[in-house]
Amino acid sequence: MQIFRRDTQLRCSMAKSEAWQRKEGKDPKGGLNAKGRASYNKANPGKPGLKPPAPKPKTEKDAKRRSSFCARMSGVKGPMKDEKGKPTRKALALKAWNC
Asked: Residues near 8 by Cβ (< 8 Å), separated by ≥ 6?
């Protein structure tokens, strides 16, 4: 973080966070969009890459990945709708994976 002084005002210059942590990297239907997955993979090079949801798996490996995700996310505590009645990110992700 750099601090600049200009006319008795202090301004902080901070780098933007990765796209997967901001709204532009999140899919409105739940999960991450392609830009969010790409930025996550770039920020975490040692981990295996993120793949898009597999709501209708074509291979046995994708079917296992889907069932594993559904089992993990279904057990996460938290509401399926927020105070305004809109579905939460959890509900959107479960719907995107067809859980």
From this structure: none
